[in-house]
Amino acid sequence: MKLSSLRFSVGLGAVLAVVILGSVYAAFMPMGDEEADEIASRDIIAETELHCVALAVYFEGGSTFETEDGQRHIARVVVERAKANLNKWGGSNLCDVVFYKRAGVCQFSFACLPLARRIPRMGAAWKQALAIAQDEIEGRSDVREETIRYYMNPALTSDRNACRFRKEFVPVVEAGRHQFFREPTEFERVDLRNSEPIECQRYKAALEAKKRLAKAIAERKKRLAALAKKKHLAAIKKKAKAVHYAGK
Hints:
Elements: H1 3-28, H2 33-41, H3 44-60, H4 68-84, H5 94-98, E1 101-102, E2 105-106, H6 124-137, E3 150-152, H7 159-168, E4 170-175, E5 178-182, H8 186-194, H9 198-246
Antiparallel strand pairs: 1-2, 3-5, 4-5
Helix pairs in contact: 3-4, 3-6, 4-6, 7-9
């Protein structure tokens, strides 16, 4: 089965599950005409996609004390990736984008958490995440940047990963605790490859220090081994000499 077909099947399965559960609930609970009309008019797919985007906002920003501005930019990244409709980001379905996983790596880290750890607490933070997601999906967000596709929190990102970001993507804006990036043009890509951001310098220095430490440890072991061998040979010679004199 092709990856795009598999993603569609998974997304459709989730929607059908919601519809079936709703149908079972409706079968056992009496409804008035107004309630029945309300359920019939609901857009289950839209509600599901809203929930998925809200999860990304909540776990990628809201649950880590990100500002509202930062959360709105995170929502923009999710929606812009879906608009791009690229397989590397999960296609055009918002839920497929949020939960896209390749080679065991989730593009939004929370999606790889155990299910019990990615269920939001139904409090103020979740309500805000839903509102932000809805504003973004319905085009009411005041975020101006339309090119951002990536983001990172420098305080929580290793120098190795931060170096990769700096050498692959162009910084656009900083919102809250996150920095947001766009993909470079061909000319910019060359400049980025030749750049040496501070994170890359620190990572390179850390690697060199690690190599020096490993070399020093190896040399010390070598010296200790040589010293032990020298002492062993001296002990053998001493013993041999003692035996020689004892035999005279």
